[in-house]
Amino acid sequence: MGSISEKLGISEEYIKKSCRLSLNDQFGTELFHVDKSSSDAVFIVFKGVCTVEEWFSGDGAFGETKINYKDWSKEAFPSMRSIGNEDVAIVNQAFLERFELATKDPNFGKEVGLAVEEGKKLIVFTGHSSGGAIAMLATIWFLEKYGKKNTETAKCVTFGAPLVGNFIVSHALKREKWSKFFTHFVMRYDIVPRIMLAPLSSIQQELVHVLHYFTANGHPYPHDSIARNLYTNVMRNTSALASHAACKLMGNTNMLLEKLTNFIKLSPYRPFGRYFFCTGNGKLIHLDNPEAVLQLLFYSCQLNHENEIEATARKCIKAHLEDYKTELLERSLEENVVDVDEREQLPLASDGTALDDLGLSTRGRLCLRAAGELEKQKRKNQEQIEKKRKEMEVSMKGLGEYKTFNAERAGYYNAFKKQDEKRDFNANVMRLVLAGIWDEIIEMLRRYDLPDEFEGDDNWIALGTNFRRLVEPLDIANYYRHAKNEDTGAYMNKGRPRRYRYPQSWHEKKNDLKKGSCGESCFWADVEELLKAANNGGKVDEERAVKVQVDVAKWIEDSVLDKEVFLKESTFLQLWDKLGPLKLQQECIRALMTDITNVSIS
Amino acid sequence: MTSNQFSSGLESANFVLTSDPVHQAWNAIEKQKQINPNAEPSLFDEIQPENPTIIAFGTPPSSLSGQEALVSSSSLKEDNFAHFEFLCNKTNPNFSLNQAAIQLFKSQYQELLQLKEKLVENSKSRTPSLVIITGQSVGGSVATLFTLWLLQGLNLSKAKRPLCVTFGSPLVGDEQLRQCVLKFSTWKSCFLHIVSNQDPTPQLFISRKPGAYKPFGTFLLCSALGCACFEDPDIILEQLVKTNSQNQECHYGNILSDLKCKALCNFSTEAKLDSSLQACLITQLQAIGILLQQQPSKEIDSLIVRMKKHETKLLIQKKKNSDSDKKLNEMKVHMAFLEWYKKESRQPKIGGYYDRYRNQGNISDVNVNEFKKKLMNYWEDSVTEVENKPQIEGAHFRVRWLWAGTNYRRMVEPLNIADYYKDGGKNYKSEGKRPKHFILLEKWLTGVVKPEATPSKSKRESVGASLNEDSCFWAQVEEARILCNLVKNGSVDEKERALQELKNFEADVYSSLKNYALSPEIFLEKSSFMQWLKEYKGVVEQPYSSLLLDFMKERNDQAYEEGTFIFP
Questions:
Q1: Is A190 a known active-site residue?
Q2: Active site residue A202
Q3: Do B276 and A483 touch (CB under 8 A)?
Q4: Is B15 in Cβ contact with A260 (below 8 Å)?
């Protein structure tokens, strides 16, 4: 048990107010409604939409699209991706389009702007049903826009909302530490939070009727067979998806499953944020782990017996409209919250606790355990690599000294490339030790086997940046020493290891820099390629030659690159000598060059 | 590790059950039966042309009793039926198949060949259709054979593998067959066998010929209560035998749709358990009707112990896979050490790393021996693994891997040669003394890299830091030195032959130099090569001049090392 307001950073009163506002005339032609009746909070309530076309649009079988599919959305949601892997978030296109309408409404921007300017303590985006889904997108939009300064002020509270994004959304929100601002209330039997798990084609007919029932006040309950079909199709797809996910959670290695996924389409949508499942008797089961939520979406809505199907299907539709009011507005919430994630070992059989109230079978409990276990495993993986920090520091220090030693000679890039001395060899061993550790880290990231927060961790970003700046030149030296460009191709195209590409992306993301702008660690590769072209008497790519010089000047000014680039024997000077008319026209680098050459002469 | 271990047999079964292909496959079988109900039923029909393409194999009306005989692949070969020979490999040169199934296959070989060719052709289109191959009872056995045959014909680096679904089929082959299929790492995932505990067919052959048959692929075992997936062949075998019903015609369509409905229901079990793995396994056994709600018996306990072992085995396998990257990095470190050793030995008085290692006078040579052993073990294993697996799979990965192997071969094989000749060995290359993995690495490289007509400028310039392209160069030098000795001390006949061979070698060396394919390290004063040259000059008729000797006389080796020498 715990205090809900402490946990969510929003009082019970405001949760109830959100609920009341969301349920009040929840479907309408109006896009959103702003409530300023509280002194220290603004509520922006999104209305639900009522036609199938407003739930599913585009060509995706589940109405899905990449979040950057339009220019405005690409700009509005820059963080919704995984950084190293560069997977872009997938969201529901129809809801995104609906939200786009809101952003085009001058009133919307004005109201949000006002709320931020007035320094309101709280801006709550809320909604019931599809309104909740749009509220989620609005909150992400807000966090992206006002993120760095005003995060603590935004909250998203939804009631019976359908899922709106894939696992990348959850991944990205956790990385940005925004996940905790999203709170979802779901009735155990509400069908709507599960709807997006079925392909539109399997439920289209039924959805028309059910949405109509939801929206038209007093419209009679749809025919039993409609409810029944909707329930069966949604739950069957939910079941397939939950089982597929559970197999992964349990470490299944049978490739037959992957084979089968070629034949069927699984929904891309996954939960994100905090979930509160309402059991129907006043209890609220709290989960933060999206994998566990997915399992619960299936297991808490199972039938007790085959002959219950019609009754359950009916319950599943009515719950969406009627139960939030009784469950959330007419009771005290504080006393009734039960945390599931924090449990060490979930009991596998019914034990009289709140999980019984969700009707969880042993199988369901095993899946929840597996979900918890996976999170634990990710944390353990991170602990494993944290333990190697010491080893990394030793090698980094050694290479740092190697660099300093050579700074008075030809520079460590050239020394390493020559491999004349024992210390060059030692440096090579240190490079390989570091490469081994970083490759292991990157491999885990590739499989999403590290906590979602990892790529946003300042410590690791700094470590990665130092590593990249110090060691990547050695990798390039090694690459061109062995003339790997001859059989494999240019370093930047074919040879650049992920252990450098990933940290560069982290650094650029963290500092809001343009993608590819922080190539200071790999400019040697450009130099080598240009030099090769110049040596072979071929035409030197003018644009590239100029760009390298401009970049180098900038990086030296920004002191992310050391001046040893200009040492007399450096490969860069070799190139510079050959550039002829392409030689730097920029004043800044000319000055730098004169400066340095003078210093080294004197 | 064990405390948080799981087994996903129930979840994968549920996923299989709720996904379409299984139901599509069964419907196709039903349809195939309807195609010509009166006439003699055809062996197979294409039920759906695309997305997915579905091929259904029918069940001939003849009884299966007395059909349990096996036939070995070698006797099939003798009968000029070698279409499954491709499954054999060095460790498993022979396997056996069910005779009845292969007989059916043979009976329509021409038609099957046509179908295979068509499917192979389709797989080359830009958006190839997925393929399901299915059959019930012995029809499923033929479907299995056909799928194996088809897999061999597909270009698996591009085409998606077909899915083979059988319903209540008897097993098709022995343990050797299973081993052979496993060598193709991804193939077993193409086979899904669905078996009801009401169906007597799958266990027919097993009980008549205990121990002769072995299953492969995934088995979905079904009971009236539920279903679960199994992969461990011994546990599958054990469960198959337990099905003991006289029920003749088993309608899998009904069984599957019943189970599909049940999947939405809460299957309550009252197991007071704490271990996740134990609970996973017990719920699986309950689902397939082996374990009812009662207390587990001794027999069940031992079954669970064996199932746990299987799960642990899977876990170890998984870990091994993830460790292989680490191992590769370790090898890179060893290679770096060797590189340094080579570098350090590049002095006229030492004569290069080959001669230094051959003379073994230093403590660091002992360390090098250690690295050499580790590297050789690693590459020997990797090469054997790749050799046993189909070459076409993962072809993309192989190019980079092959370059690493080539670099290794050029660096380490000289050390192996040094060890060999130091101990008085002869004819390293011709007498089969050369380790097989070196031979294969060399062979694979020539398959990928086409030799250039004229060496590039950058090849010339980087020759200083290069390794000998021919990793057996030093063996040839050793042989040449033995020949010099023969010219000095041998009979007249021997002399003449040896001298001719020496001249051939000399010409080879020169043309390799022209190609910048030899490291200038061979010119170091104390190297075996320079010693050979001295000896050669002593035995060859005088006056004698040649391109190589002129090259050496004019001290062109220095320009060669600097990468500035251009051959006339």
A1: yes
A2: no
A3: no
A4: yes
Determine the Cα–Cα distance for residues B336 and B235; give it in Å rounded to an integer.
47
Residues of chain B positioned with their CB less than 8 A from the CB of A246: 8, 11
Beta strands (DSSP E) in B43-157 are 44-48, 53-57, 70-72, 96-98, 131-136
Could you give the 3-state DSSP secondary structure of residue B98? strand
Partner B, chain A 356-375, Cβ-Cβ below 8 Å: 359, 361-364, 366-367, 369-370, 373
C-alpha span between B79 and B111 (Å, rounded): 20
> If you count residue pairs, one on A and one on B, with CB atoms under 8 Å apart, how many are there?
190
Write down the catalytic residue from A18, A128, A190, A505. Answer: A190
Nearest CA in chain A to B132: A263
Task: Nearest by CB to A247, from B8, B274, B318: name it.
Answer: B8
Task: Supply the DSSP string of A63-77, one letter for each residue.
Answer: SEEETTSSHHHHHH-
Q: What is the DSSP letter of B169?
A: P
A219 is catalytic: no
Residue A71's identity, in one-letter code, is D
For chain A, how big is the Rg over CA atoms in Å? 29
Residue B465, both tokens: 């830091």
Task: Answer yes or no: do A255 and B186 touch at CB < 8 A.
Answer: yes
Chain A residues within 8 A of B28 when measuring between CB atoms = none
- Closest-CA residue of A relative to B217 is A256
At which residue do the structure tokens 């067979």 appear?
A225
Measure the CA–CA gap between A460 and A458, rounded to whole angstroms. 6
Measured between beta carbons, the chain B residues lying within 8 angstroms of A416 are none
Other CB atoms closer than 10 Å to residue A73's CB: what's the count?
22
Closest in B21, B274, B400 to A263, CB measured: B21
The helix/strand/coil state of B392 is coil
Tens of pLDDT along chain B (568 residues)?
A: 445 689 999 999 999 999 899 999 999 999 988 876 666 667 888 888 888 999 999 887 777 878 889 999 999 999 888 899 888 877 888 999 999 999 999 999 999 999 999 999 988 888 888 999 999 999 999 999 999 999 988 877 677 889 999 999 999 999 999 999 988 878 899 999 999 988 888 888 888 888 899 999 999 999 988 999 999 999 999 888 876 666 666 889 999 999 999 999 887 666 667 788 988 998 899 899 887 755 668 888 889 899 999 998 888 888 877 777 778 888 988 999 998 899 889 898 889 999 999 988 677 778 899 999 999 999 998 888 777 664 444 444 567 778 889 999 999 999 999 999 988 888 998 888 899 999 989 988 887 777 667 777 778 888 888 899 999 999 999 999 999 999 988 888 888 899 999 999 999 999 999 999 999 999 999 999 999 999 999 888 888 889 999 999 888 999 999 888 888 8
| Residue positions counted in chain B | 568
Across the interface, of B332, B407, B465, the residue whose CB is closest to A432 is B332
Residues near B438 by beta carbon (within 8 Å), at least 6 away in sequence: B409, B413, B416, B471
> Using a CB-CB distance cutoff of 8 angstroms, which residues of chain A are in contact with residue B20?
263-264
Q: Does A311 touch chain B (CB under 8 A)?
A: no
Q: Does A483 touch chain B (CB under 8 A)?
A: yes
Chain A residues near residue B261 by CB distance under 8 angstroms: 306
Q: Distance between CA B376 and CA B414 in Å, rounded?
A: 12
ipTM of the prediction = 0.89
* Predicted TM-score (pTM) of this structure: 0.89
Phi-psi region of B312 (alpha: psi -120 to 50; beta: other; left: phi over 0): alpha
Nearest to B340 by CA among A427, A397, A392: A427
